Amino acid sequence: MSYKGIDISEHNGNVNWEAIKNSGIEFAMLRASWGHFTEDAKVRRNVSECKRVGMPFGLYHYSYADNDANAKVEATKFLALAHELGGYTYPLNLDMEDADGWKARNGVGDSQNLRTIRIFKDTIEGAGDYLTLYMSKSWFDRLRAKNAGLIDSIDAWLAHWGISAPSMDCGMWQYTSDGVVSGSSARTDMNIAYKDYPGILASMGHKVDTKPTPAPAPKPEPAPTPSTGGVKAGDKVKVKNSATNYVTGETIPDWVKDRAYTVMQVGNGKVLLKEIMSWVRTADLVGQADAGSGLFVGKVVKVKNTAESYATGETIPDWVKNQSYTIYQIGSGKVLLKEIMSWVRTADIA
């Protein structure tokens, strides 16, 4: 089996997805993001249009990771963005190359490249998603010679132009950057997929909603009462996007909203936020504390060093531990952490 596809980024402009589909293209790999961390300027339009016309798609991230910390930022934010966009039936992909020479100029060597690949593998596969690795033949050969176990454990998306067939085993092959496709720019990357990725992802339990992803509906909240809602000094909280005024009456500017702050002091139905030294109503904080656990949506927590596995059963890698994450959703005895989009038991967070 084989499927004809393209890969697209903001550099292709506003492409015509109906024309692309009608030309016989069967799938697309869309750049979601690059670096640590910038969202592709066209990815939301491309995802929405692919869903509208019924074009199967996957997402990729172009890495500029020069240390482990930046690799973790890239991997977790890419995963969170992919889950927010939704609808993909092709893999999530790590693009490891040095097309602009940045890595070479900044001394990013293969030991770091291999650690970056490992971090992406742990993050993406740890969340139950399917990861592929995009590299040129020379990069595959060079990194495989240094860690064949790691490289061969990830499905390859091979970039090798000017040949008549893939030069190594791969799930996808990018065979030219000079393709011409109706609806796209003059130069378009062309690919062939040799696997039924929608079938593979479906067998993994990957559920697809091809409808445009609506903004999350706000959770019902109790009417504001003169209480702290369980918030205490030292807690990390966020200001709701819907907040309009400080307790003192001044308008809350947009840049203050949806950012984490430290509760410095608690008053009657209000809290003093340390970083901006302003009083905000507890009703204007993201989420409300759970009376029993003190947890609430928007609270910043850490995964304990003693944590062993996610609530879904996968092993929690060491780099996830003792890092700060934002509670995105609260379940029974577990919380969903936004930055890694993974469920962690409440007993394993601090």
UniProtKB/TrEMBL annotation:
Transmembrane segments: none annotated. GO terms for molecular function: lysozyme activity. One of its GO terms (biological process) is cell wall macromolecule catabolic process. The keyword Ribonucleoprotein does not apply. InterPro entries: GH, Glyco_hydro_25, Glyco_hydro_fam25_subgr. Residues 213-225 have a biased composition (Pro residues). Residues 208-235 are annotated as: Disordered. It holds the Pfam family Glyco_hydro_25. It comes from the Bacteria. Keywords: Glycosidase, Hydrolase. Belongs to the glycosyl hydrolase 25 family. This is Lyzozyme M1 (1,4-beta-N-acetylmuramidase), GH25 family. It comes from [Eubacterium] hominis.
